[in-house]
Amino acid sequence: MVLESLFDWLFAPLMRFGDAWGVILISLLLTIFINIFYKLFTDQEVMKELKSELKSLQKEMKTLKDNPERFLKVQKEAMAKNLIYMKHSMKPTLITFIPLIIIFGWLRSTFAEAGDIISWSANVPMFGTGLGWLGTYFFSAIIFSIVIRKIMKIH
After folding, report:
1. Which of 106, 134, 100 minimizes the C-alpha distance to 30?
2. What is the pTM for the complete model shown?
3. Closest listed residue to residue 137, CA positions, set 6, 30, 57
4. Cβ neighbours of 131 (radius 10 Å)
């Protein structure tokens, strides 16, 4: 497969560090890629303003528990703002979705036989004895995303 050969070549330098570091570094690269697209394809000023408005509406809703009519009015306004926020954030999601699905297929075929990439000695309920490639990818992507969003000032 052409794409598989491309990804083998593209990610080969990262694979030299072993399975765990390979998945973690690929997660870092993909998270940077996603966040760059997110920042490029969203109006950060609008996003910041919407986030601020949503935060203030949520605070207001906490104070209106005794006034159901006013609470519902503010909640409706918050839902409308949230819908606008989601509409703005959907464009970069759609742009990055197809490439990520293709890369995830390659990751699965590359690391399927690796088993637990990150292991611990105890059998932890719901996590077993370690994390496979998918768990390793997601946990590292969450951490990287938080850090990268702070660095790039993405709202």
Report:
1. 100
2. 0.81
3. 30
4. 20
